[in-house]
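User: Hi! I'm working on a homework problem where we have to compare a predicted structure to a textbook description. Could you give me the structure for the chain below?
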Amino acid sequence: MNKPLYLDSHSTTPVDPQVLEAMLPYFTEEYGNAASKSHIYGVNAFQAVETGREIIAKSINAKSQEIIFTSGATEAINLAIKGLAFKNKEKKHFITIKTEHKAVLDCYEWIQSLGHEITLIDVNAFGEIDLEKLSLNIQENTILVSVMHANNETGIIHPIKKIGEICRENGVFFFTDATQTMGKEHLDVESMKIDMLACSAHKLNGPKGIGVLYVRRSRPRIKLDAIIHGGGHEKGLRSGTLNVPGIVGFAEAIRILSKDREKKQVQLREIRDTFWNEIKTNIPTAQLNGKLENRLAANLNISFQGVESEALIIALKNDVAVSSGSACTSDAVYPSHVLKAMGFDEDRIYSSIRFGIDNVNHNEETGKKIITISEQFNRLNF
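Assistant: Happy to help. Predicted structure tokens:
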């Protein structure tokens, strides 16, 4: 049976064969615990971890000791927000935007129940943040601003360098969820004045189950309380046996992506733009959610007015693998909070599909599926 064309790369990506090859020895040969440095197995595992830490740190212009390994971006986000809230008892005001990932919004909802004050900033119809409004909402007791680098549903890329500058000028820490951009878009924690950054390997052709939290250690130094205890691993911030194969795979995925990164992004944009132009030609009523420019090279979020997205997704299941939004909330029956924050009505929200193109896709493959999508749309839109 032929599998459908995979166009859900914002949810997860296939592991690159070179990444898998780099990981395999750490399952079968170099299987030591990185914390057991009394013998060669542990030493080799420890060295692999530190090499991976250095590669990942270098990719964002950080220091290796500022990289904390987690089980994924969600855990990294929880550690960043809750860890900072628990550590700082006086400054209780946090700022974020309404289109953040649910992992961020749910963390803020939880610490709000403990007495912290949360300000949610609106976005415009394109999902863009008003930087002046952000500045005006910073208070004396504000400790953190959280704005994701790129939205996981609409692909909008936020101006995090400008946001970092605003935060630094006001003496406020800046945290960004870079899960969708790590290894793909330019990231420099120094020039962008990022104080904490979360990401995950499985969005960049690495393995699932491994993530990173970057925590600045100087100018300014960020202090967090641990949220997982037992053993004091990762400088006391994240106890638990390290996922050595995952760390090796994460680093290898970063190494591969760093080669010809810009060229790969150009290729993805060409595939994406061709896809959108063909969709518009075949389905004139289709609407793009967000602007085509200033968005992830692999992203399209399209509203197929007149047809519910779930019905179209089911009709396409043998031909195209897509989703209506975030994989973390795909089982929910309520509308996308991202598209809702952009001011769309429920008809547009419930007819929207997110397409995530990966490096394994090609114009020929995606082109062949456009006719199928239009045929199924026309069949449902009778």
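For your comparison, note the following. The chain has a mean pLDDT of 94. The radius of gyration is 21 Å. Good luck with the assignment!
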